[in-house]
Amino acid sequence: MDQAQTPALLRVLVVDDSEDDALLDVLALRRQGYDVQYIRVDTPEAMAEALQRNSWDLVLSDYSMPQFSAMDALRCFRESGLIIPFIVVTGTIGEESAVAMMKAGVNDFVLKTHLKRLPGVVERELREADNRRAKLAAEAALRESQERYELAIRGANDGLWDWNIAERTIYFSPRWKAMLGYDEEELIGVEPESWLRFAHPDEIDNLRQRLIQHLKGETPHFEAEHRVRHKDGSWRWVLTRGMALIDPNTRLAYRMAGSLTDITERKRTEEQLLYDALHDSLTGLANRALFTDFLGFALGHALRDNGYLCAVLCLNLERFRYINDSFGHRVGDRILRITAERLSAVRRPGDVVARFGGDEFAILLDAIASPAEAMAFTENMLRELAQPVDIEGHEVYPGARVGISLSSGGYTHPEEMIRDADTAMHRAKSHGKVKYELFNREMHGTMLRALKMEQEMRRALEAREFVPFYQPIVDLRSGRIAAFEALVRWRQSDGSLVSPAEFIPLSEELGLINAIGRQMLELASLQIAEWRQRFPSEVLRVSVNLSGKQFNQDDLVQQIDGAIEAAQIEPDLLELEITETILMENTDAIVSMLETLRDRGIQILMDDFGTGYSSLSYLHRFPSNALKIDGSFVRRITDDRGSAEIVRTIVLLGHNLGMKVIAEGVETKEQLATLRGMACDYAQGYLFARPLPAADATELVASKTRW
Questions:
Q1: Where does the chain cross the membrane (predicted)?
Q2: What 8-state DSSP symbol labels residue 289?
């Protein structure tokens, strides 16, 4: 709406028991430029009085209220005879309820979670109401001249009917007959009430009731959407309109005429739109809105029947992102459709299977005997999902992790039960081999702590409380510090430190690791510059750890370039530590990115070497300058022959490939001596120093300590 124009006045009757919800509806319209004047009512009496006393452009009704319902409001509205839009604004609504309301005359639905749709829906329905009023006015103006009236109806491609009540005859125009498959010579001289026999049996009583109301003068016009039987036996949706002429002396109707419009295609479109609004387009499963609605009915059953028990299963596919990235979205979509088919195959009658989006699915298990039945179903479902899928000659085993919540948890809102099943699923994902978890209250506490931690982490990012601590890396030939590893620490405003074990996993799950990693690159680069100026005779490199999540950023190389440029340091003074397991995320893309970085002179270190399963198969492709031996081997180097041989082998392997080797986790002088005997290049560990704040690390460099 053009802001320069005078706002359009919109008089709205809001049927809602919540003033806050009514204000949200009004605000959504005012933001679109409407000058909204409204009254809120929440009882049938108040609504009837408001409809009688005031002039309205629009009715907005909640679906369910303590003393009132949208269906009650619609009946009250229809009795008024107003030709204005009636729109339901609701939190959730079942598919069957929505269809019933549409059949009863609701113009449209808007979910309270999608109020941004409201102005567009209102604008469209106001236009439609204007069109309906214009058409009725035209019909009224033309009813005295059957020839002109029929011409207008034919121009609109409608059929015409004319019922002479006094003479008990009825006329159907050729177009009316053709719409139902009859020739012009047929249906001549039939009984006036015979048109009702064309109507669907489920709708005859309603049609007859509406007709009687109009003939009694209780409604200003007759209008009904209903099905009629075509001559070929099929059912067509039609809109029947009509108006009766009343004898002023007897107050009885003596004639009635109207039109018949074929609305079959519009009804099909409405039904498809309603289906699309409640189902996932890729798999055809219920979507989150429909699933939530069914779960709401199940929880209502649980409140009425203490013996009733249901369960919600939330599941994520394993390795789906890897499949999607490796084979493309077309293959990913195929995996999702196969998963949907397998879930539908194992569900029981009465169960509901839904896709929430991505690789997130949910199942509502209706009327289970015990928690054990839910777990048995889950195990059977997991076996079915684990069956291999052939993808371009490769066997892929999708698998899933599942969280389960039970209605016995005392839920009143379906969102809470879904939330707890999702929490249990994330617990299963973090527990390695565990495929499913049953929700318990302890998980809820863990989730709340995680939410609190998330808020604190976002605040800490803004306050730049994430800082690098530096652990020295010693050259075993000279015994002097050659480099530092920058390890992220969270130093809160009161000076206390939060363990990385507490915040790193959560930061990766939330995607905050990208922002933290960027800060580490910037701060480490600035520290290199400071040491370069303070110790011009020393060449001190700093290595920064990169998370696998950071490689999903398209601008990672630009971030690193920017940090180096801002600090004005030589690129070869910055080193990047990558764990070998990161390669499995998307090998080709990551290797290409690392090669780009190494071409700039930036050093690449493979961290935790020897602990993964991809070491030898990917080592020849990995653009690495150095290998870092995992501390679990180094700590046992003096008392475990196997560990010593592993370390010796890694040192030889690295040297043969032209790489330097760094041993992590050195804690004793004996370990240090053994590593020197193996010709290991560098060592790192508590023997030299724990991770230090920048100031303490600077003092350590200044001390020129040798080991």
A1: none
A2: H
**Could you tell me which residues are beta bridge partners of residue 239?**
225, 261
Tokens of 295: 């779960």
How much is the pLDDT for 549?
80
Residues of 405-418 as b/e, b for ≥16 C-beta within 10 angstroms? bbbeeebeebeebb
Q: Check whether 490 has a pLDDT greater than 80.
A: yes
Alpha-carbon distance of 17 to 57, in angstroms, equals 21
Which H helix or E strand runs over 28? helix 19-31
SS3 of the chain: helix, strand, coil, percent, to 5: 50, 25, 30
Would you say 478 and 535 are in contact if contact means Cβ atoms under 8 Å apart? no
291 with 183: CB under 8 angstroms?
no
Helices (H), 117-199: 118-142, 146-155, 174-179
- Whether 60 contacts 12, CB under 8 Å: yes
CB 19 within 8 A of CB 42: no
pLDDT value of position 153: 52
| DSSP code per residue over 540-599 | -EEEEE--GGGGG-TTHHHHHHHHHHHHT--GGGEEEEEEGGGGGT-HHHHHHHHHHHHH
* pLDDT of res. 155: 59
Strand partners, 436: 402
Q: How big is the CA angle at 489 (ends 633 and 526), to the nearest 5 degrees? A: 105
Helix or strand (DSSP H, E) at 314:
strand 311-317
Rounded Cα distance between 507 and 548, Å, is 12
Q: What is the DSSP letter of 170?
A: E
| Residue 450 confidence (pLDDT) | 66
Q: Is 33 helix (H, G, I), strand (E, B) or coil?
A: coil
Count Cα neighbours of 413 within 13 Å in the Cβ-side half-sphere.
Answer: 6
User: How far is it, in rounded angstroms, from Cα 146 to Cα 172?
Assistant: 12
The candidate with the shortest Cα–Cα distance to 336, out of 313, 311, 301, 361, is 361
**4 has a pLDDT exceeding 50:** no
Q: Tell me: the pLDDT tens digits for 296-323? A: 999 999 989 989 999 999 999 987 877 7
Question: Would you put residue 536 in left (φ > 0), alpha (ψ -120 to 50) or beta?
Answer: alpha
What amino acid occupies position 589?
Answer: A
Beta strands in 210-252 (DSSP E): 222-229, 235-246
Q: Are 701 and 483 in contact (CB under 8 A)?
A: no
* For range 146-175, the mean pLDDT: 76
Summarised one tens digit per residue, pLDDT across range 50-87 is 999 999 999 999 988 887 888 999 999 989 889 999 99
The pTM for the full model equals 0.47
Q: Are 172 and 258 in contact (CB under 8 A)?
A: no
**Distance between CA atoms of residues 196 and 187, nearest Å:** 13
Q: How far apart are CA 61 and CA 83, in angstroms?
A: 16
Residue 262 tokens read as 């074929």
pLDDT in tens, 268-284: 888 888 888 889 989 99
